């Protein structure tokens, strides 16, 4: 909602309509209420007239799981003829929702009834269930049902076909045997046993097999399913055409007759004559699991067919072109319902071009589809009804259902807009209004200010007809009023409706392919030659600094800098606001004054631009969680959500506003409706939540790093030795109710007054002890990740470079449970209160004490005086010496944690440190790699700075000799830390690797030929000669490349990968798993 009191002034009490119109002018215009209704609205607001109950009625629908609003008045309601007040039953800020439901008396009960999530608790339902349970479950009652149907058969004639409905009668295995159905119904063609208690496959098959004339059988929701009975049923009943509502491979005339309502319980028959098929005009084949249409489904057999529904079928045994050709032969076909995308392709327009006689496609007029250019068309969307489990408390049920009912607005006045939106639920009348693309009513939130002031405002929703509405007609509204397909209307409707999942899954896959093709940084070397130097004037005068940041004013105390209150005379402008060309012009600044911001830095500091920049530079790197800009990429996100749900993967997400700090309007949820509805409170990104973060003493934490940027092109950046951990206050949990607990899932506590600061060295010491890790290894990964972020900006946005820019950014990092860093966000002009307040100790470099009061002295010294005190360059880790010969005697238990091996004194280096003969001969069977490689017929010898080539330490390289026995194989494997170039010295070797799009690159190499395996790619080497060995020499660009053999990673881990995982992943049985494990030399 826009500014609520823009025209109001203190004392503007509403006494007349003129007062009302003047004070509420902006609100009336923003709400879109027709001017002809303003005076009537005023009278109802002033007198608190709620007369909707006299005009409308609320009716149950969708079997009581939803309600609808109908016009109950005796007379029709004309367009814009009246206006109605709708009360708000519940208003709240999102973090308070669960607490209010749990604590406000009667609130959860009212909301549960309004949202239809209390059906199982209603007395009438419970009594009905009790009555039903008294009847069902007894043999006597079932026999009564059977005898009644038997009598009907006798009336038609003893040889008549029988159709038996025994659904949900509590029939167990022994009762089924006792019923002896085959004797009572020798011509039984359909048997419905849905929802009973059948468990024993042998007993069930014993009885069903006797019913040899069965055409249809339903065993749905019986415990016997899942016990290999399906195959027995299909093999044992040769004429079965429908099984558990699905077509079998034998489906023909009878199955088509059933779907066309020619055959049924009221008209059972054992066969369908061709004349009856020829009269079929409408046939519904939806959700029949049809892979290939029956041969009898043809224009010659169904010449009158005018309406066809084939939704929900894979139809994967016939091509889309053949289907279109088949359907084109039905000359009377006017209406078609089909999944889009689906078996007929991805475009409604393409389908219509192939089937020009269609007048309706998925309930939408064909001409309107062509005119609008819509590729997806559907007018019959299935409503998304609330789901809950019986054991769920009412409050939690309401939380799950509320996104189908919520509305929202923000409060505002002339000075500011409220950072946190208000959500509300309309009363029972307003909440019963359902959606329609062709709505006949419109609603709008409205704040009535009887005293003329915002703090006295009363919130309502205003309802008025936009078309003529007749008695008994349903009253609907457009849930997405004013939002067209240019704003992702179809995708946003998923908040309330179930739409074709295939379309969104395809959008997700296309988006992933696009990301995978992005790799600017991996192919572009960012220039690093330092270009900046001290800007201290040659005459030695102090640099004048203008700032509006209190910490800089207090702690910048170096004599080289002096504060000034006049920005025009400053050398350095260090402020919290954006300094753009308009600000410069207004204040009188010049382009030769240094500022603490870079042009176009929004590519880093705005969350959606940061993700976009990284995606363009790196594709989809591991250190950035899957991230979607909801304003542009909602469809791929929905596809990602559906894929994760289908595959049983984690599906928790975090919604973040583009440009708000301190976790304002940030929400954690696994509810797709919530994700979509939260778009209404402002533009956001949706990012995969790190569900399994590294924890500190059971609590979640993140790390704030300070990055100092002197230049973008060339890239010249430094990492401050001062960083700190931000800790959540509560123990971490993934219980659904915890997502409303700020102090469980968020770490920024200094703005809520309950921050528990921990000194960084103490945190690191305790973390290493708790997790048995080396912090400096983690620190190196974080350094590399942060550098990648700024390389992204330099590669994608070189226009950021400005020689008069120097900036400080806060980079927030979280570790997952494998201690891998994940980038959260980059912050402009970060709050450095902790850095200034607390002394700490450097964990790298000198490890000296760093005084908090010197923090900004250090920052300004680095950025403007070319100093590197208490900072470290974020450049590639090049050697600072000519070489670093490994000190093989360095004690492994040393307190120092190094990325490599410690160096000896360079003066002690000798030529033999740089030479090795370890590759001159084949590895023996006693070699450590021999046991692992024996099953495949290969041996590998790798140089190692610790044992065979100390001069290679810190040089980023290794060499390997691979001996392949005749027919030997170096099986599929990866080197996680290195690329490899392999040179064949002897023999013929087939080599290959697969990339991340599963494309295979292979080549047969002979002596003298080489091949490159990119870093991390799965690759193999195979000696094609079964009579002679082969020899390969490789170079790798890491002194510790690592090697992970795929077969061992899957079948020889310790502890073993669970058998169920292996069986499902490789579509094998348990015996296969154990056989492979034995063959690889592992335990089974």
TrEMBL record:
Mn(2+) binds at residues 973, 975, 980, 1019. SMART domains: Cupin_1 (SM00835). Residues 921-1074 form the Cupin type-1 domain. InterPro entries: Cupin_1, Germin, Germin_Mn-BS, Leu-rich_rpt, LRR_dom_sf, RmlC-like_jellyroll, RmlC_Cupin_sf, SET_TTL12. Its main location: secreted. Disulfide bonds join 884-903. GO terms for cellular component: apoplast; cytoplasm; plasmodesma. Keywords: Apoplast, Disulfide bond, Manganese, Metal-binding, Secreted, Signal. Oligomer (believed to be a pentamer but probably hexamer). This is Cupin type-1 domain-containing protein. It comes from Miscanthus lutarioriparius.
């Amino acid at each position: 909602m826009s500014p609520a009191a823009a025209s109001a002034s203190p004392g503007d009490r509403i006494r007349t309509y003129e007062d009302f119109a003047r004070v509420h002018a902006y609100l009336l215009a923003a709400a879109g209420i027709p001017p002809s209704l303003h005076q009537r609205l005023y009278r109802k607001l002033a007198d608190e007239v709620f007369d909707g109950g006299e005009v409308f009625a609320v009716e149950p629908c969708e079997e009581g799981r939803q309600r609808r609003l109908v016009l109950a008045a005796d007379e029709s309601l004309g367009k814009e003829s009246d206006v109605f007040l709708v009360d708000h039953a519940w208003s709240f800020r999102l973090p308070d929702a669960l607490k209010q439901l749990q604590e406000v008396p009667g609130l959860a009960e009212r909301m549960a009834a309004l949202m239809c999530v209390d059906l199982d608790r209603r007395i009438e339902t419970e009594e009905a269930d009790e009555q039903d349970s008294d009847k069902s479950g007894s043999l006597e009652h079932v026999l009564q049902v059977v005898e009644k149907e038997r009598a009907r058969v006798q009336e038609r004639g003893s040889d008549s076909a029988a159709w038996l409905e025994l659904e949900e009668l509590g029939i167990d295995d022994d009762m089924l045997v006792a019923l002896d159905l085959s004797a009572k119904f020798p011509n039984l063609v359909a048997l419905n046993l849905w929802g009973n208690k059948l468990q024993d496959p042998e007993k069930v098959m014993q009885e069903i097999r006797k019913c040899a004339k069965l055409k249809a059988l339903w065993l749905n929701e019986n415990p016997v399913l899942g016990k290999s009975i399906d195959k027995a049923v299909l093999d044992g009943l040769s004429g079965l055409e429908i099984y558990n509502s699905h077509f079998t491979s034998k489906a023909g005339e009878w199955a088509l007759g059933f779907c066309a309502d020619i055959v049924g319980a009221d008209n059972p028959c054992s066969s369908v004559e061709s004349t009856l098929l020829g009269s079929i005009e409408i046939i519904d084949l939806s959700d029949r699991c049809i892979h290939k249409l029956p041969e009898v489904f043809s224009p010659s057999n169904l010449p009158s067919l005018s309406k066809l529904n084939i939704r929900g079928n894979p139809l994967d045994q016939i091509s889309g072109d053949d289907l279109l050709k088949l359907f084109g032969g039905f000359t009377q076909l006017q209406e078609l319902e089909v999944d889009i995308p689906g078996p007929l392709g991805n475009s409604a327009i393409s389908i219509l071009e192939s089937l020009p006689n269609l007048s309706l496609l998925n309930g939408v007029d064909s001409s309107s589809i062509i005119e609008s250019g819509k590729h997806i068309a559907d007018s019959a969307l299935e409503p998304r009804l609330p789901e809950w489990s019986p054991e769920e408390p009412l409050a939690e049920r309401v939380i799950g259902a509320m996104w189908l009912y919520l509305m929202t607005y923000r409060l505002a006045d002339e000075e500011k807009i409220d950072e946190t939106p208000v959500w509300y639920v309309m009363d029972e009348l307003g909440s019963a209004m359902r959606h329609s693309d062709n709505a006949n009513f419109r609603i709008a939130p409205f704040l009535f200010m009887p005293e003329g002031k915002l703090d006295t405002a009363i919130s309502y929703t205003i309802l008025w007809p936009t078309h003529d509405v007749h008695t008994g007609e349903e009253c609907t509204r457009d849930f997405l009023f004013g939002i067209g397909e240019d704003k992702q209307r179809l995708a946003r409707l998923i908040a309330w409706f179930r739409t074709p999942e295939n379309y969104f899954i395809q959008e997700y896959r296309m988006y992933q392919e696009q990301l995978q093709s992005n790799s600017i940084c991996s192919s572009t070397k960012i220039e690093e030659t330092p270009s900046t130097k001290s800007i201290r004037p040659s005459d030695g005068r102090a640099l004048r600094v203008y700032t509006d940041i209190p910490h800089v004013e207090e702690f910048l105390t170096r004599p080289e800098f002096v504060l000034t209150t006049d920005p025009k005379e400053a050398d350095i402008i260090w402020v919290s606001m954006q300094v753009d060309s308009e600000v410069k012009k207004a204040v009188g600044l010049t382009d030769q004054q240094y500022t603490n911001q870079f042009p176009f830095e929004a590519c880093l500091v705005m969350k959606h631009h940061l993700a976009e920049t990284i995606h363009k530079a790196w594709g989809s790197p591991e250190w950035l969680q899957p991230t979607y800009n909801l304003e542009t990429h909602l469809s791929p996100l929905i596809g990602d959500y559906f894929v994760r749900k289908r595959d049983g993967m984690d599906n928790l997400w975090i919604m973040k506003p583009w440009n708000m700090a301190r976790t304002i309007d940030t929400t954690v949820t696994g509810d797709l409706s919530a994700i979509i509805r939260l778009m209404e409170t402002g533009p956001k990104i949706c990012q995969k939540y790190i569900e399994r973060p590294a924890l500190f003493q059971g609590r979640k934490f993140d790390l704030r790093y300070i990055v100092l940027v002197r230049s973008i092109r060339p890239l010249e950046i430094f990492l401050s030795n001062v960083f700190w951990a931000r800790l959540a206050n509560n123990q971490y949990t993934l219980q659904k109710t915890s997502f409303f607990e700020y102090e469980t899932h968020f770490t920024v506590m200094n703005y809520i007054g309950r921050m528990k600061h921990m000194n960084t060295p103490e945190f690191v010491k305790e973390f290493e002890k708790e997790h048995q890790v080396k912090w400096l290894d983690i620190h190196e990964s974080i350094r590399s990740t942060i550098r990648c972020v700024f390389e992204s900006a330099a590669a994608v946005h070189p226009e950021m470079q400005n020689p008069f820019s120097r900036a400080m950014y806060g980079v927030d990092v979280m570790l997952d449970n494998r201690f891998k860093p994940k980038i959260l966000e980059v912050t402009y002009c970060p709050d450095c209160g902790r850095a200034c307040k607390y002394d700490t100790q450097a964990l790298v470099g000198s490890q000296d004490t760093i005084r908090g009061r010197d923090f900004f002295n250090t920052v300004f010294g680095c950025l403007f005086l070319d100093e590197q005190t208490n900072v470290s360059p974020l450049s590639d880790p090049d050697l600072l010496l000519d070489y670093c010969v490994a000190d093989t005697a360095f004690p492994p238990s040393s307190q120092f944690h190094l990325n490599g091996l410690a160096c000896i004194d360079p003066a002690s280096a000798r030529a033999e440190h740089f030479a090795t003969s370890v590759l001159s001969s084949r590895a023996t069977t006693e070699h450590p790699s021999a046991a692992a490689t024996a099953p495949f017929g290969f041996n590998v010898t790798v140089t190692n700075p610790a044992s065979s080539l100390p001069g290679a330490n810190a040089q980023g390289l290794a060499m390997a000799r691979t001996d392949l026995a005749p027919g030997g194989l170096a099986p599929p494997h990866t080197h996680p830390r290195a690329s490899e170039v392999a040179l064949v010295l002897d023999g013929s070797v087939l080599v290959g690797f697969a990339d991340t799009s599963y494309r295979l690159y292979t080549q047969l190499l002979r002596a003298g030929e080489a091949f490159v395996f990119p870093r991390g790619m799965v690759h193999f080497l195979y000696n094609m000669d079964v009579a002679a060995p082969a020899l390969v020499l490789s170079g790798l660009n890491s002194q510790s490349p690592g090697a992970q053999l795929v077969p061992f990673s899957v079948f020889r881990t310790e502890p073993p990968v669970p058998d169920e995982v292996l069986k499902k992943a490789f579509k094998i049985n348990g015996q296969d798993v154990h056989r492979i494990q034995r063959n690889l030399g592992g335990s089974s």
